[in-house]
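Protocol step 4 of 5: obtain the predicted structure for the target chain.
Materials: sequence only (see below). No template structures provided, no constraints applied. The aim of this step is simply to have a reference model before the mutagenesis design in step 5. Sequence pasted as it appears in the construct record:
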Amino acid sequence: MNRHRRREEEETSYWLSYSDMMAALLLIFVLIISFTMLQSQTQYEAKEKELVKEQEIVKEQEKKLEEQQEELDKLIGIRTELIEALKKEFEGSELSVKVDPKTGSIALDSSILFDSGAFELKESGKELLRKFLPKYIGVLTDKEFKEYVSEIIIEGHTDSQGDYIYNLELSQKRALSVSKFCLDDTQSILSSKQISNLRNSITANGKSYSSPVLKKDGSEDSAASRRVEFLFRLKDEEMISDMSEILNGGN
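Step 4 output (structure tokens):
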């Protein structure tokens, strides 16, 4: 009897220990599942936040691109309008100048401005500038365009005859002579306000014979190459140009 009772107690103790072990294993399993689910939920929420952030960044970039495209379109429109205004200003005038339809640049014949190999303005050159400057500067400083124009560039160019450095110095001196005449307030060509604005934006460059004018057959037109060009640059134009390439896929 005692032996039988002891055996029953041992069996009961065994099953209790087994039940405790299974309960512990089940608890561990539940904890593992809970931890895994919690970790998955945390990762999901982190990914969701990251996705929302990425979407916000994409939206900001899209908005920025739209603004840049609008600015590009506006700047292109301003250049077109400015070129048309210059054309209209010189059409029908006694000045036989041509406005480049793409850039808006205007080339003045060096033979009218200077004697051969010289950089001092001759009387015919001064007379040409007296008639040309009020019209040209008048358009660029008009209230419709002045806030967009950042730089007025005067470039001296020569033909390819002679030494490059000699021509570089000559072209630079010629551009400087024209610039000085533009800024000379004793000439009474431009108003004091126009001269003041011009001082903040004018640049004189010598190009030697690096940009020759070519004939249809590809040979140099020496007479046309000897020139002084008036050009303008719009604000943020280089940045807009780079932006245009990016927006057009580099094409």
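Step 4 remarks: The mean pLDDT is 83. The radius of gyration is 39 Å.
Proceed to step 5.
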